[in-house]
Amino acid sequence: MPRPVSSSPGPPPPLVPPAGPIRILLVEDHDMVAEAIRMALDRTPDLRVVGRSASMAAALVDASQLRPDVVLLDRRLPDGDGIGAIGALKAAAPATRVLVLAAEATAGVAARVAEAGGAGLILKADNLRELQDAVRRVAAGEVAYSKGLLGAVLDHLTGRTSDRGATLTPRELETLDLLGEGLGSAEISRRLGVALNTTRNHIQRVLEKLGARSQLEAVTTARREGLLR
C-alpha cells in the first residue's frame, strides 16, 4: 500500500542561476546612459539585455511580458521613484529580481530598497565589472550592494535602523519633499493647494516626527534616512 504524501509545505527550492544567458530588463530614461549600460552588459555572453523601458509605467508592462531574470532599475524616473515601484514590478513578474541603479545613495536609501523587496543597489559610479557581477549575483538569488551600503541593509534587517519618518503621512512626505527642494511655506502651500496655516501645521508635524528643531535639520535628517523622493 503506498505511503500517504504529506500535505505540509516544504522549504522553497533554492534560487539558481538561469540555464542560459541572464535576461535583463533595463529601466533607464536617458538614452545615452541606457545605450552605454546595454553595450556594457551585452558584451559578455552570459548577460543579455532583452528590453529597455524609459518609465515605470512602461517597465511594468515590459516586465509582465518579457519576464526577465533581472530588472536593472534606475532609481529616478520621469513618473516616480523606482524604489517605490519595486513591489509592483515583482507583482507583475514574480520570479524577477530587482537591482536598483542610482547616481548616489545613502544608508537610508539602501535600507528602503531592502524593505521594498529589492535584491540590491549599485551606484552608477561603480566600475563595469562590479555592475556585471552584481547582475550575476542577483540572478543567482543573492543580494548585491555597492561597498559601504551592505552594512546599512544588515542594520535595517536586524532592526537597528532608525524608524524616524515611519509615521509620516503621505501629505507630510509631500511637504518634506518640497522642503527638500528649498521651498518656503507660501510656495509649498501653493503647490499643495492648501491654506498657509495648513502647510505650517504639516511642517510642524514633520519636524516633530523627525525630532528636528528646524526645517534645515529636518531636510538633513530626511536625506540621511532616504526619506526624500
Strand and helix layout:
Layout: E1 22-27, H1 31-42, E2 47-53, H2 56-66, E3 70-74, E4 76-77, E5 80-81, H3 86-92, E6 97-102, H4 107-116, E7 120-123, H5 128-139, E8 144-145, H6 150-157, H7 170-180, H8 185-192, H9 196-210, H10 215-225
Parallel strand pairs: 1-2, 1-3, 3-6, 6-7, 7-8
Antiparallel strand pairs: 4-5
Helix pairs in contact: 4-6, 7-9, 7-10, 8-9, 9-10
Description:
Helix content is 46%, strand content 15%. With 229 residues, it is an alpha/beta fold. It has a six-stranded parallel β-sheet with strand order 2-1-3-6-7-8, sandwiched between helices. It has a two-stranded antiparallel ribbon with strand order 4-5. It is elongated and about 60 Å long. 35% of the residues are buried.
Low-confidence stretches: 1-14
Helix and strand element order: EHEHEEEHEHEHEHHHHH
Order of strands in the sheet with the most strands?
2-1-3-6-7-8
- Find the count of extended strands (DSSP E, 2+ residues): 8
Task: From the alpha carbons, calculate the radius of gyration and give it in angstroms.
Answer: 20 Å
Question: What is the 3D shape?
Answer: elongated
Strand content: 5-15%
- Estimated structural class: alpha/beta
Ends distance? 62 Å
- Averaging pLDDT over every residue, what do you get? 84
User: What composes the largest sheet?
Assistant: 6 strands, parallel
Q: What is the helix fraction of residues, given as a range?
A: 40-55%
